[in-house]
Each structure stands twice: as structure tokens, then as C-alpha cells.
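thread: overnight batch results

M.L. [08:02]
morning all. the overnight job finished for the chain we discussed friday. pasting input first so we're all looking at the same thing
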Amino acid sequence: MPFPSTPGERDRPWVMRTYAGHSSPAESNALYRRNLAKGQTGLSVAFDLPTQTGYDPDSELSVGEVGKVGVPVAHLGDVRALFDGIPLDEMNTSMTINATAMWLLGLYQVVAEENGHDVARLAGTTQNDIIKEYLSRGTHVFPPGPSMRLVTDTVAYTVTAMPRWNPINICSYHLQEAGATPVQEIAYAMSTAVAVLDAVRDSGQVPPDRFGDVVARMSFFVNAGVRFVEELCKMRAFTRLWDELTRDRYGIEDPRNRRFRYGVQVNSLGLTEAQPENNVQRIVLEMLAVTLSRDARARAVQLPAWNEALGLPRPWDQQWSLRLQQVLAHETDLLEYDDLFTGSVVVEAKVAELVEGAREEMARVEELGGAVAAVESGYMKGRLVASLAQRRRRIESGEDVVVGVNRFESTEPNPLLADLDTAIQVVDPAVEAAACASVQEWRARREPEPVRRALDRLRAAAGTDENLMAATLECVRAGVTTGEWAGVLREVFGEYRAPTGVAAAAVGPVADAALAEVRERVRATGAELGGRLRLLVGKPGLDGHSNGAEQIAVRARDAGFEVVYQGIRLTPAQIVRAAVEEDVHVVGLSVLSGSHLQVVPAVLRGLREAGLDDVPVVVGGIVPDGDARRLREQGVARVFTPKDVGLTGIMGQIVDVVRQANGLDQQVEVAATAG
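M.L. [08:03]
and the structure it wrote out:
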């Protein structure tokens, strides 16, 4: 991107995107076309959870998840429909996909070839950062070793076959959402980059004289929070460290290859359900943090919608976010000047502080054996869970102010929410049935022998050190489905359950009065029931966003509960089995993907069939009011949503639920105690 040096000239704006995709390939295609017509300059594809975790829509594990948080892609026909009429050789396409990144890239390439496009001209990004999946989003499938092999093979393939493609987007965005401080966000992202670059170098797939091309295609996807100055300085620190790392560790001499190239999604974690109109100014401030500093400016920006804490945004909400970018880029004079912060004493001091802190944390990760080892040991996950717990405590105490949530809570009626049923987009329940029928028809119509040969080749190649991209492309062309491709690799590589970080997170500080009271109520209730209160925290379905579940587990432990938490992606049957085996007093379910109306009733049925209909169930997640009423009608005792920020208060309500379910008086005789 050429930068002007004198006022009056205008820099080219960054790539403008909205993260989009839902229901079906055809509906998502229509949405992309509308967004491009409104001036969006790139695509950012959201895939649904079955696609992200390698299942077809008709898999038992996909129930309730199809088309909810993105578009379902089961085979080549789906990708044809998804990009129908969109010139891929003129497009910059970002695909938020990780465990199955190689597969989706193969599908994209073949569709481009079918449309006569030169593969070497394709531009875009596959996220393909598996390390952060173990730490935050939870869409990993395979163990770290085989997963890193898939990442490495994809990087090595694109360097020669798709030289304009960014084969990895090292994604610190989700690390911040999982609790990372700016220092941790920088350090863990850089440690991931080191792990990937070392793996590509050591694989021998790229000649040493081409390694600069590998470094040049590395990109990053970062988070921008509302602490404006700190976030701006974080990006300048990222830029400085990346230049230093690629020069000193990898000997990259060309400064163009050392350039820190990043896209940004501003902080969805900071969006509030209470007074959601305040999210608009939060989004604007966060966008400014990554665009004002010309020397560390994002190359691509995508903004969430103001109502994402309520549910799936409508096209109009996405348009509003796009217009925020367009006003900044085209109406203001932001792009006409050199960096506004060069020489700032305040900025330079903060950048130096962040750089030094990140170097120290990177050194700790290196001592553990690198990013992969720090995942397997649970070190990084435990640090993130602890950091997020501290952040939650600061919000609850009022030390960190969130306008409309813990201060300035009185409000006028919001006309944007006058009709809650139309304030968000709802995925038609028929979408799942249609996707199941589509993939079954696809299997029935294809030639079986090419499919068998392609899967056999993939299976054989996975048992060697051969680059898996050629076998993957053969599978695409033969008509293999997402679930079949991932299923073969599951056979060879196995699956993996990552550390939860809950046990490693530091126990909270001395309890305040509210937590001390809840602790005593937990103790007293347990005594009345003949033992310590046991809470099962369950994550049903394919949703891997576990931050809320982990924080509930940590606070429940601090409140005196015995906590049973087995991690993400459990079936309702597994949750019921754990409730029986652990003899729990209450079950808490965390669902953020929108599948609550399917997976929660399945757990309730399972508990009744197991004779545990007297064990109460509480639910937490992004649950619209109407859905919350339906869940309560089906027997759920409490429904907690993002507006319920007081975790200690939630613990108190869970005690109430246990006492009510067991016929105990709600008044507990609390002993005089503190701490």
C-alpha cells in the first residue's frame, strides 16, 4: 500500500468487510452480493460450526448447529452456490476457518478453476491458526502435532501455487476475548508465529531462498478493545516486534517481507446487551485505534454490528457497520497525513512497556518448549482464564466502568428494540433439514468409485509426511464431503480435548462481603443435603466459545462448590452421564451458538430418563427473551444472558435453585464469617 508523504494526497482505504454467512450457501451469496453493492470491498466468510469442526449437516453432532453462526459448506456444490456470480479473481476473500482450513481452501481453488480463474491470482486469507483454537474458540479437531502439519502443508503449498494468498491469519483476536492482556495477546500471537515458521522451515518443503516469501505471506488478525491509547500502542508494539523477530530469528533482509500485515475485528466481547445502542460509539473508538496510526494501520477492517450481543445481526445492522468505515475513510481527512503519533513521548513509553512485557512472556513460552508445548501443558490457557477472571472481578467491583452495565444504568426506552422479535435475524429451523437433504442428495448423485479412491489416497498420505494438499484437491474434485474428509483424518490422527485452564487459574483473592455470604450459603446448603454442593458445568453441541463456562466454573469454585467441568463439545448424553456419575446437585449449560432450543431440551429429556428430573438445570448464553421463556416453560430453572454480569449474584441464584429443588427453606442461617 503506497503511503503519501504530504498533506493533500489520500492513502488508499483498507479492505472493508463485514463478517457474514448464515442459513445456506444461496442465502449467504445473496447477502454477499448486497454487501458488495453497498461498497464493501472484500468478503469475510463465516462458516457454521459443523463445517468448522469437520461434520456434515446430517451428523448426529450437528443437530441444532447447522447454519446458526455461519454458512454450512458440505461439498463442492455448496461452494459453487456460495460464490455464484462473484469474480473470485477480483475478490479479496477472508475465510474464518481453522481445523478444516486446507479443505475449504481446496474447495475455493476448484470453484475458481471451474470459473476459468487463474489460481495464482487468487487473493485472500485462510485463518488457519490452530494454536488459538486450543486456547479460545475451541474448533480444533486433531491433536496439536497433526494440526500443525495441516497448517504447515497449507503454507508450503500456497507459497508456490497461490502466491497472493495469505495461508494463515495468526489470530490474537480471540485471545483477547479469552482474557489476554495486551502483553499476552502480543506474546502468544508471536509465539504462534514462531511455531508456524519453525515448522515450515524444518519441514524442508520450502527452499531456504524462498523463505522470505513464506514470511511475507504471514498475516495477523487482531482485536481492538475500547482502551483506545493502549490498543493503538499495542499495534505499534506488534509492528516493532515482528520486524525484529523476522530479521533476527529468520534473517529476512527485505523490509517489505518483514512488514507486519494485519486485519482487525473490533472487540465483540465488549459489546453489551444492556443499552446496546452504546455499542456504536465503542465500535467507532475501537476502529480509530487501528486506523489513526498510519505506520501501524490495519490493512483490512471488519466491524461487528451494534446488536451482536442480542443475536444474529440483520443486513441493515451490517450496513450500519460498513457505513462507519466508509465515513471515516472517505469523508474525513484521516488518510491524508503522515503518522500522527511519531515522536509522542506518551505513545513511545507505552509501546516500549508492551514490547518489553511481550518479550518476557515469549521467553517463558520458549522455555516451556514453544507454543505447542505451552498448549499441551495448559500454561497459556490457564493464564488466559486467570486474566479474564480478574477482568470480570474488576467489572463487578466497579473498578472497570462499563456504561449502561455497572454505571449509568437508567435509560429511556430504546426504539431500536421496540420489537424484539425483529431486532435480530433468526435462522429458519427448516434450514437444517434442507442442508441434510442437500448433502444426502449430493452423496446419492455422485460417482462412488472416485470418492473411494480419493479417500483411500488421503488416508495413505496422512500416514506419511507427504503434503496433503494434492490428496485434498483430489477429494474435492471427486465430490467428497466435509465430514468424509475430516473423518478419514480423524481415523489417522485421532481427536483431542484441550486443557480447560480452570484448574490452572489462580484462586480468587480474599472474598468480598457478597462472595463470603454466598460461600456460607453454599457450605450450609451442602451440610443440609449431606455433602459438598456439586455443580456440573456443561458445554453441549459444537460451540467451542468456552469463556463464559470457564468463568462460571472458576467463580463457583471460589464460592465453595465442587465443580465438574469436562470442557467443550459434549453431547447431551455425555452431560447426562456425567450428572449421574458425579451425583451433582445442579447442572449449568452454556450455549452461545444459538442451538439452545435443540440441545437444552435434549439434556432435560436425558435427565428425566435417567431418573434425575429432580436435578435443576440453569442455562447461560446469548438467549433471546422469547427463547428464554420457552426454556423455562420446559423446566429450566434460570436463564442467564450477557446482561447478568455479576457472577457472584449468579452463584447466589444457583444456591436458591438447589434449595428450591430440594424443598429447603430459602432462608439460610449464615454463620458470622468473613474472608
